[in-house]
Amino acid sequence: MAGFLLAYGTSLEMDVMARIPKLTTTLAYDRYMAGQRLVSSVDRPWRHLVLRSYLEPVEQELLEAPGLQDLTLMTLASGAEHLERNLNGRWERADLRVGDVWFVPSSPISWRWRSIGDEPLSTVHLHIERGLIDSVAEQMELGGSPELSLGDAMRFRDPLIATMLGALHRAAADPSDSRLYVDALAHALAAHLLQHYSRGRPAPGRLPIQPERLVPRRIRRVTDYIRANLASDLSIGELAGQAGLSSFHFARVFRREAGETPHQFVTRLRLEEAARQLRATDQTVLQIAIAVGFESASHFSVQFKRGYGVTPRAYRLRG
Known about the structure:
Blueprint: H1 2-19, E1 23-24, H2 26-29, E2 36-40, E3 49-55, E4 59-65, E5 67-68, E6 71-78, E7 80-87, E8 90-97, E9 100-104, E10 109-115, E11 122-128, H3 130-139, E12 156-157, H4 159-173, H5 179-197, H6 216-228, H7 236-243, H8 247-258, H9 262-280, H10 285-291, H11 297-308, H12 312-318
Parallel strand pairs: 1-5
Antiparallel strand pairs: 2-3, 3-11, 4-10, 6-9, 6-11, 7-8, 7-10, 9-12
């Protein structure tokens, strides 16, 4: 009887594995997760990224998941766990806490875990399109499609990556955070991964990148473009093109020259124009919100109150 149960269990596990594809898409990956989804960016107008977070079971005996083409990073939003993974027939284990980051390899993998803390166990999963990594690598003058040396690490600590994952998690849950802000974070995260975890080398025959400065004429070109297109869904790549710089360099150089990030600059200009229209026109709050580039009246009201300390309606009444 025991032999039958063992054989039955082995047969069942093999059947489960047979039904799991070797590779799946980031959007489909959600169906293989064990936890209750808390936050998702799938319906947000984000480029190059998908972020989800889950409230996980206290204990999971076995979770089989297919591989992914997109680069996937995970971290804990709360709690602590003893995590084990089986990659290519070998089990590895580590105790993970908030601040630890781990990499999900591109091949099928088995997971099991148990909570080792009193707090609820929740995870953040960030999927980064390989195309973004390759695009930033090209801007950094790295040869070919560089390989990131993360697959051998069951766990690694990188405070900057953990901070960026936390910022993206908050942005996914907050409709008032703009796509331009997320765009800048995505490029910065890709550049950090390539700078510190890439096996790539500078392309042969190319000179090292020299620091570039945005001269006042280029600053004016970008700021004039922003003022003329406040209602548009501006992106880092679009603004970088106006400056004649790569996306990788643009955000850093713009902040150095303008004293603000592109996201902060665009948001400030949108709020200033909105305040002017609230004083000078009879348009509704929704009309003004759309005219200056906000997604909705509620999104606009949250940002306006952050900037001016009152709601748009209260600002208009105050005169």
